[in-house]
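Summary for the steering committee. The consortium agreed at its last meeting that each partner would contribute one worked example illustrating the joint modelling workflow. Our contribution is presented below. We chose a case with several input lines so that the handling of multiple components could be demonstrated. No manual editing was applied between input and output; the record is shown as generated.
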Amino acid sequence: MAKLPKLLIIDDDAHLRESLAEVLELDGFECHQAGAAKEGIAAAAKIEPDAVIMDIQLPDSSGFQICQELRKRSKTTILIMMTGRFLSSEEKKQGFELGADEYITKPFDLAELSARIKQLLSRNSAKG
Amino acid sequence: MASTRNRGKLAYKILFWFLLISLAPMIFVGWHLVGITQQSLRKETLAMQESLAVGFSDTVYKYVTTFRNVLTETAGLEDFVSMNPARQTQYLNRILQIHFAVLELSVLNDKGVESLRVGRFLGPNPDLRDFRSEELYARALGPQGQFIGRLERFQGLYPTVTISVPILDQRVTPARAVGVVVARVSLNGLSTMLAMEFPASGKSQAAVMTRDGFLIAHSDPREIYRPDARMPAEVEKVLTTQDNAKGGGEIAIEGGKRLLGAFALIDKLDWIVYVQQPVEAAYQTAADMKTQIFRVLIWVVLFTVLLSLAVAGHITQPIRILKEAADRLGKGQFEDLPEVVTTNDEIGDLAQTFLGMSESLKEKTGELIHAKQELEKFTKFLEKRVDSRTRELKAAQDELIKKERLAAIGQMASVVGHEIRNPLAVINNSIYFIKTKLGTGGEPDVKITKHIKIIESEIQQANGIINEILTYSRQRELQLERVRINDWLEELLSVYPFPPHIQVDKHFDPGNPAVDLDKTEMQQAVRNLIGNGVEVMPAPKGEGHDPHDDPRGRLGAHRHRRRRLRHPAGRARQDLRAVLHDEGARHGPRPGRRAQSRRPP
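What follows is the complete predicted structure of the assembly.
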């Protein structure tokens, strides 16, 4: 049995976190959840996810700081920033410079998200 | 013109000064000449009158002494000394016959009683009088040897004098007075002489009077032949109080008249000869001089008036023309100015200066008018500029208000959108999960599928509303980046989640032109267009559908050159046109959707 790609979802909204995890699990991902930044970093260190989907606004830190921290730990982990508001070009540029791979805006198309993650994963696999 | 008929103040001033300059010296000199003349006349008249008085006093004395001598000679005759009445009568009658002035003759004996008496107006046997106590008897026999006096008015009118001399017997030594011869002599002859000397036609009068005021003779018969004949009181007072033998001066008498009078004293008779003349008569020459001077003054006045008017006209006429021209200049009438006379004098210089000034004024006024017009134009230009700037400021202010409002809305919308998007995302995830789950269990219930789609549609609609609000409220400057349009479109299309039934045909410009665009904005715009196209091309129902059949989307980038605007460097601006065609359920092709970007020149 093939090993499922591991996803870590970091969001303070439990409903969104759980619904997103359950949907992506249907699409063949192994999903883990964290409700805060520190918890998310700890989880990432533990499970070493292939991809992390994180909210930009978290209660204890910003998504950019988590992104920077996670990128330090892993160069290959796919980091997808999730937001409910418009991001300026500067903000997006900052996120990309800190290591983000993609931005998605709530509510997002789950099929598109799933396809994008798979594409990025396959690219990493091809490079690896 | 009325203005030229009026002579003006200057003419009257000139007239006044001409009159003053010409008349004042004449009046001053004339006044003094008349005064000098009057003084001279007064002095000369008084001297002449005094001389006449002195001369006539001698005449009077001689006139009186003539009768005394007749009496003395008669009294010395031997026949008369004998005191023979008959012989004496003969002698006395003879005297009466010869001398008409003798009115009466008497012989007094040594006792002073009248022994013989004859006269013109006596009867045959007149009364004989006693003169023993009379002065005429005593003085005749006294040291003086004569008596002249006892002035009376015969018949109350005619002045007479009594003369007496002694009858001396020379046959004894010393001679012995045997009687006195007395004569009463009329003095009318003196008045006659005075009248002849000082006729009534003349202004001078003469009189003889005693120190006590008895008027003896007068050149005017009307003054002497009166019972109360006397000189005027003022004259009498002056004459009776004189101590000098002669003299003269001015005497004011009743009625305001003034006289020039001179007198001479007949010392031996103690009579006064007086000559007078009215001041007016004495000063007649001076009066004539006054009249002559007055006539000359009148002529001078007439001449001066005419001369001054002529001079004033000569001087003021050009000045008045200048004034009229100046008035017109003052009203801005530079044309049709009166002809200014230019003469070779100061007025001509003034006229020349005025002409120069009027030309300069005309020129300056023209410049002022031109400057005023320019100023008005500039003012209108400035007003337009101010209006334009005001409109711009108003627009900028409105824009600022709008931006501020949009910023506030954007801030609020950002918060609200974020807060709403979370539950929308949850709902979206959940419905996706449900849909997926239902799909794995076979054909889902039609109504459940319908409602799932309704929920998805409502989620998209709500999200669209939030996007619109956020887009509307988001105010950001375009951040242009230069990109290769083909590369950019390829990347965008590669990540766009096209449904499986959509085929994308790409027709790119082979030159892969570079364009300046805001990647974020343009990406959103293109994605919206694609989304709209996809939306109108739903997936066909049923099996066996070939996704390569119509409908299909077609996207291309074409350069399009426009020459409406020119770049400051002179190069034409080029626009790049991206055209998206979709072929939806409608018949025929839908109009192309276009995204346009500026291409660098």
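Chain A touches chain B at residues 13, 15-16, 19-20, 22-23, 26, 57, 83-86, 88-89, 92, 105-112, 115-116 (CB under 8 Å). Residues 6-120 of chain A form a domain with the Rossmann fold fold (CATH 3.40.50.2300).
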